[in-house]
Amino acid sequence: MKVNIGISEEQRKSIAQGLAVLLADTYTLYLKTHNYHWNVTGPMFQTLHTLFEAQYTELAVAVDDIAERIRALGEFAPGSYKEYAKLTSIKEAEGIPSAEEMIKDLVKGHEAIAKTGRSIVPTADEASDEVTLDLLTQRMTVHEKTAWMLRSLVA
């Protein structure tokens, strides 16, 4: 059936394209965070292992929320590594960095996602898409707070 939610098809497609990038960024950061959870070593092991687990768990829920919003807008959500690699602004880690480098890398990832979310706001705002705006506000809040907390570990 045709989607009739008060947002034009063109606007829905544009918003969904932005959300596809947000989804790719979020999934890529999820994978990176999970990798760091498994492979962190050093004196902060227990703290970081636990922290990274909480973060990747939150990101897994976010992936679902973002993909479901894309579907509610009437578009298909990307769902493969190949598609994510084309869309994401987050670089994959090479090798196993030190614990401090992991933290710094995750800060960059969370900041990148906050920027991606912010870039979608004007399009969603113009379409009066309050649902997407709410999702974006929630995501930016989480990523900005997480980046701050991670930065605090490496002062």
Automatic annotation (TrEMBL):
Matches recorded under InterPro entries: DPS_DNA-bd, DPS_DNA-bd_CS, Ferritin-like, Ferritin-like_SF, Ferritin_DPS_dom
SUPFAM superfamilies in the cross-refs: Ferritin-like (SSF47240)
Record domain Ferritin/DPS: where: 19-154
Record-stated family: Belongs to the Dps family.
The protein's name: Dps family protein
